[in-house]
Structures are given as structure tokens and as C-alpha cells.
Amino acid sequence: MAVLVVVTVLAALAAPHARTVRGLVAGQLAELPAIGRPGRAPATGAGGARAVTFALRQRGKPYRWGAQGPHAFDCSGLTWAAWRAAGVAIPRTAAGQLAGLPRVHGRLQPGDLLIYPSRGPSRRHVAMVVGRGRMVEALGRGLPVRSTSIRGGYLGAVRPGPGR
């Protein structure tokens, strides 16, 4: 019985790092990166800056539902592609991002994601904080990717980062 408990605890602790371990075993990683507590790394590091820079460079590109670049984006496609460009894997949909990433408690930081209610097919909209009360978003049909002031009324804020 004790062995079963130990194996269960070890599996639960290793689960967040399964993708990294699989890459190491498959020979796709040269070495095992430092593993910290999941979701504790702030978005404002180099990854957050790269994600924000990528997202801002997409301004002016058209909105297209389901698109994740490089010529058009939907809201979660933009945030997914931005964090992917920063080397961080996050869920593809706004609902998945809200459910699967650590919540922000306190001040918003560049790279944080704001999830809003929506009347669209997914019932969620996501935008990325870029700093100084501003965010970048692919809001909807007819509106290109744009930078705008942060709106209130969001359902939650999440913070992607290394170690997720």
C-alpha cells in the first residue's frame, strides 16, 4: 500500500513536467531545464517581453475566427502565437487559457492575459496586457489586431510564464 501511495504522489508531482521529460527521453532536449514551481515565474521576464513584442508587431493584421497567424489572428490565436514565439506553450483557446494558467493576484504585468465574456462562438475573449494601462487584442470581425486601453469587466487575469 505504501508503494502505491509513493508512486501516486510522484506521478502527481511529475505530471506538470511530463512534456519536458518526454522530450529529454526522446532525445529532443540536450539537457533538462531547471524546473521550478509551476506558474510561479512572472511574465515580465524575457519571455513576457518577447510575447508582448510579438503581439504588438501583429497590429493591423486582420481578424479571422480560428486563425493563429501568420497573416490573420483570432483573439486566442494571437495570445497563443505570442507566447509560442516567446518559447512558452499555453492552451490555444481563451477558455483553456483561463482554466489552465495561474491566476494573477495583484498588479497586472506585461504579458498577462485578460479573459472577457463574449457573445462569440467560444463565449470568451482574451487580450494581452502590454503595459501602462494598455492591451493588444484581436477583437472581432472587421477590426484588425490593435492596441487599446484596458477595459474593466474581465472574468479573470492569468499569467503564462516559463515552467508552465
Would you write up a description of this structure?
With 164 residues, the protein is an alpha+beta fold. It is built from 5 helices and 5 strands; from the N terminus they run H-H-H-H-H-E-E-E-E-E. The chain has helices spanning 2-14, 18-25, 46-57, 75-85, 94-100; strands at residues 113-117, 124-131, 134-137, 146-149, 156-158. A 5-stranded antiparallel sheet has the order 4-3-2-1-5. Strand 3 and strand 4 (146-149) form a beta hairpin. Helix 3 (46-57) packs across helix 4 (75-85). The radius of gyration is 17 Å and the shape is globular.
Secondary-structure topology with pairs:
Elements lengths: L1 H13 L3 H8 L20 H12 L17 H11 L8 H7 L12 E5 L6 E8 L2 E4 L8 E4 L6 E3 L6
Antiparallel strand pairs: 1-2, 1-5, 2-3, 3-4
CATH architecture of the largest domain, by name, is Alpha-Beta Complex
As for the number of domains, it is: 2
Number of helices: 5
Low-confidence stretches: 3-7, 9-15, 17-43
What global shape is seen? globular
Number of extended strands: 5
- CA radius of gyration: 17 Å
Superfamily at the CATH H level of the largest domain? Answer: endopeptidase domain like (from Nostoc punctiforme)
CATH topology type of the largest domain: endopeptidase fold (from Nostoc punctiforme)
What structural category arises from helix and sheet content? alpha+beta
Main β sheet profile: 5 strands, antiparallel
Topology as a string of helices (H) and strands (E): HHHHHEEEEE
Any idea of the CATH class of the largest domain?
Alpha Beta
Percent helix, as a range, is 25-40%
Q: Quick check: average pLDDT?
A: 80
End-to-end Cα distance, whole Å, is 31 Å
SS strand fraction: 5-15%
As laid out across the biggest beta sheet, the strand order is: 4-3-2-1-5
